[in-house]
Every structure is written in C-alpha cells, then in structure tokens.
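Handout for the seminar on molecular recognition.
Each group receives one record of this type.
Step one: identify the two inputs.
Step two: read the structure output and locate the region that could contact zinc ion.
Step three: write two sentences on what you found, then compare them with the reference statements printed after the record.
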Amino acid sequence: MVIDFHAHVYPDKIASRAVDNIEEFYGLTMQGKGTVQELLESGRAGGVDRFIVFSAAAVPGQTGRINEYISSVCREHPECTGFGTLHPDVPDPGEEIERIVSLGLKGLKLHPDMQKFNIDDHRMMKIYSLLEGKLPVIFHTGDYRYSYSHPARLRAVLEKYPKLTAVAAHFGGWSVFDVALEHLLDPFCYFDISSSLPFLGKKRAVELIRIYGSRRFLFGSDYPMWDPGQCLREFLELDLTDSEKENILYKNALEILKEGEPL
Ligand SMILES: [Zn+2]
C-alpha cells in the first residue's frame, strides 16, 4: 500500500487561480492542476492508493467553506482522507474543531507562512491544547525567507504539548533542512518527505531519514507542486531497506490515522 500524506486539492472553479498563487509564492512551476480528478488519476496510474487531502484558509472567513469542501471530496472518493484547516483568528476555534471532527476530517493542516502566523503564536497555543490527544496536525515547516514556520517554533510547541501528534512537512524545514535537524531531532514529531528530495539529493535524504529514524517519516507529494507517481518513483530509488520503505509508504501513516495494521 502507498499513502500520499500531503496533497492539496481545490474546487475545479478556483484550482487554476490557487495554483497560480502558489507558483507566485514559491517562484516554482507546479506540475499539477490542483484538481481532485487529476490527483486521483495520475496518483493511481503512478501507484498511489490513498491520499491525505487538504487546503489552507488564507483568511478566517474561508475556514468553514474549505472544511466542508474537503469533507465532500472524501465522501465522493473513499481513497481520500481529509484534514481540515483552521486559522488563529476564527472566533471560536473549539467549535470549529468540533465541526471538523463531525465532518469526518481526521486531522488539521496548517501553513503558517501562507496563513501568516507564528507556529508558537499564543493564539495557536490554545488551539494545540484542544487538539492534543485528539487530532494530528501537519505543519508546513521551514522557509528561508520567513520565520513563521521556523523549526525552533515547532520545537517550542512540542515541548509545551508533548502529546500533540505533529507532522513537520518537508523533512521538518523546507529549504532549511539542517536547521530542522538542530531543533527537531529530540522532541518527537513525524516528518514528511514532500518537496524535499529534489533539493536534498538522494544521499542526504537517506542520511537524514536514518538520523531521525524511518519510523518518523511519511511519503508525500505536495501535489500539485509535484506529480505523486513521479515522487513515488524517486522515493523508491532511495537506498533504503524494504522495511524502512514500508514504514514511510504506509505504516507510520496508519499509526497516525489510528487505523492499525492494514488487511
Ligand atoms: Zn502543503
């Protein structure tokens, strides 16, 4: 089984605008269109069985609509598991978390750089205390241009909320992979491998996976930035053992989703 733990999807009508915005934000050309149909078709053709899908609210008013949209995608497509979005300025985060749970969403995805808040912002601390022991959170982490998602900020959160199940995307710090290693080796969190291999190179990627341990890593594509099948081929070329690959491709993901061993 292969689970892509990091995929962004948008309603068809706004997908091209969303993709343009992300291209502009990162100065990178995206490989995909950002639609559910393309994700599922190209992912399946490339050997991916399941997808964790989400989208970030740039402003608090978008939160409810996005969560409903992600939930509807998952109702239509059983191979998708949805994570919700939240914003530090939603009027009642506790109520929104209840709604996220009742919509059948299995976690939260936060993008501090795009949503413009510090991971360790005091408004977020209340939210983490509500999420601890309840829902896992994927954090976009790391950007050499900003400090919002700095790995040190995530460390501060993990030290304060040790029972929070956190996934630090992009090896814990996109474009600042070694800074992540300074801060995230010790407090426990998971990592995903998305949007990292082209920058790290295969040798360093394997070194980092072994330093942190394969039990902490998840496979992810960061679709529509990259094509999931292409990411899977690149991942499978890494010089890792079969059991390390199994951990990363699905076992750790099932543990986070509390689904236990696959059939
Ligand atoms: Zn992302």
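Reference statements: The CA atoms of residues 7 and 164 lie 22 Å apart. The pocket of zinc ion is lined by residues 6, 8, 140, 169, 222 (CB under 6 Å).
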